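Lab notebook, bench 4. The sequencing result for the construct came back, and we need a structural model before the next group meeting so we can plan mutations. Quick request posted to the team channel:

Model the 3D structure of this chain.
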Amino acid sequence: MTSFYSMFPLLFFLLLSFSSANSAHPHKDFLQCLRLQSRNSASISKVIYTSVNSSYLSVLQFLIQNRRFNTTNTPKPLVIVTPLSVSHVQDAVICSQKYGLQVRVRSGGHDYEGLSYVSPLPFVIIDLINLHSVSVDATKENAWVEAGANLGRVYYYIAKKSRTLGFPAGVCPTVGTGGHISGGGYGVLQRKYGLAADNVIDAKLIDVNGRILDRASMGEDLFWAIRGGGGNTFGIVVAWKLNLVPVPETVTVFTVEKTLEQNAIHILNRWQYVADKLHKDLFIRVIIERVNSTSQRGKPTVRAAFNSLFLGGVDRLLPMMQKSFPELGLVKEDCTEMRWIESVPYFAEFPRKTSLEILLNRTQPSVRFLKAKTDYVKKPMPKVALEGIWQRLSELEVESGQLIFTPYGGRMSEISESSIPFPHRAGNVYQIQHLVYWDKEGREETRRHINWIRDLYRFLTPFVSKNPRLAYVNYRDLDIGVNNMHGNTSYKQASKWGIKYYNMNFDRLVQVKTKVDPANFFRNEQSIPPLS
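Done. Here's the predicted structure in token form:
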């Protein structure tokens, strides 16, 4: 028979764990733990912010990119940690776990539902803003990028080393690489080179035990999962090793705008049939929104802006467009030749001669309230659908509504849907991003704008992907389902949203999660749950 005294060490550990998790002041215990855990207590004290610090709110709000989650009623973290080294991240993970605090990890602050800096439970933000180094090896055509670096910074330092290397990621330069790549990450080079996550060749991850793992030590299953399986689920990625891609010395950009009066619906309808079949070097997305009419002063109209990058010169582009998409009526005067790096501020809608230094900025020129949703289109929508979109934008009862149609095809159709967790590959003509913005604070304003985008989403139901109705995890949408934050989440419950983001890859993600984080320490409202 096992004696009571032989069990005493185990009982002591259990009691200690229970008292830690149920402390009346878990954040104070957490802070004490950080100081004890840290190899340099003076160093760690410089990266800790609590509500008693005068700079607490400014640090919290600096990277909040959606005003919906920057109100007096928004839950605030007990502690913000802004690590200066990877060891600070390790310490924060170990101490959060010990004292029962949730962890939210912020790279750029662009999570559409604020999940990188808001939680309904007592929580700590690990803000990676100081971990932003970019080390480019142009000879080997790769780069190590820390997860707190924003995309603009990555592009800037690649271009510093080479005029003919780039990286296929997003168009918004203030987005952080940590979250962007964790969800897949797409941009104007996707038809040529695929996603950002398709071009990751190694990573450094802090796991649930506080260990630093690279690709070799984490194993291929976990390495697969972190490249598209969503952030703050399997651990904390602190750095990515990126495969850089060749870009020509000269690229061409254009934006051709068409209103309803200029036959926009007919041209957009034609775009649906050619956008995914164009040459891989040619990317044309469409941004649809309400604007003031230039022909009828003061009267609103709906405009479709055909916004494009071509990997080559205008003399090669024009014959290609004349053959494949003559309906747009592109002429040489619409086009501008430039270096690839100069196209980055162009797509971010900065003025033409803006200094490239602006790519190093972490904040947007303006931050608004917003809500977003996504869809995938498997076959061209009928004109009645396009007319319905136009009608809803024309009769807009909200401040600013927008749809962005992003073409697929090319390299995106060549990569297997199970290559990484991001499943949206062959068979998708284009993706729709639904957006609504507003500037006035208040419950009624929020309700009105969110109702508008939900109504638009319902209207498009017959015309988009079905069984499941697919969505993109980086355009987070809690309307499609959430986990239990105060208890376990069943596979069945999580699959309501998980299948929409990951399709058949969801099962493998659950298996990986069960193996690497069975107690579900890293979790949020839409993180992959382990099997019970």
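The mean pLDDT is 93.
Will bring this to the meeting.
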